[in-house]
Amino acid sequence: MAEGHKVGQINIGQIPDYDYDLRRMTRQLRIVWDSFFRGQIIIFVMVFFVYVLVYSTLGVRYSIALAALTGLAVFIPYVGIWVTSIVLVMVTLFQPDNYFGMDPWQYAALVLGITLMINFTFDNYISPRFFGRTLDIHPAAVLVAALFMANLLGVVGIFLAAPVVATIKDVGFYVFRKMLDLDPWLEPEEDQRPVEYPWFRWSKQFKTWIQKVQPRKKGPTDKK
User: Fold this and answer.
1) Where do runs of H (alpha helix) occur along 94-138?
2) Cα torsion for 142, 174, 136, 37, to the nearest 10°?
3) Pick from 69, 77, 74, 75: which is nearest to 147 by CA?
4) Domain boundaries, the chain
5) Is 125 exposed, middle or buried (0-12, 13-18, 19+ CB in 10 A)?
6) Which of 29, 147, 162, 224 has the fewest C-beta atoms under 10 angstroms from its C-beta?
């Protein structure tokens, strides 16, 4: 009884049965959040440069500002693209002239159609390469979570909906398996590796290619 006051000071990480689980869950959640934030930044940069090129080619006024706005839209799922589309239509409708000699509404429809097509490509082919393996959540779940968190945290809640859902999913799966006295880790820890983003993989491939094409210096054995 003399040490009864220390019971409340016990850290769950000090319990042998949970020490490994705590370390592994912390690592897994860190990978989820780190992948999410780094992926968002990389996609923003990619979207920005793509739209600067596209809008400049189409002759859209304020192309850099609109490209930045479109890039920022990736931080606000579902809502961002609609806000960007409205601004884009307003700018192109009131633009006095264009490269193609179209009527304003035709020009606005053309620019909006190309924008939606590019966004569709990013949402369905590029973004999943960054987030798919790490978050592993259905888009419908993200949408429901975004609507719920928007009421709690506003725009910030919409932005954080995806990683929050992924966190709840991982923790919930762990608790569910523990309650059934099952192993909560379906894969060995050594098989779980951080997500390698295509951006970094392309960089490594480019460096390897540069090393191959560079002329090899002749060594002493190569001289005749």
Assistant:
1) 104-121, 127-135
2) 70
3) 77
4) 13-211
5) exposed
6) 224
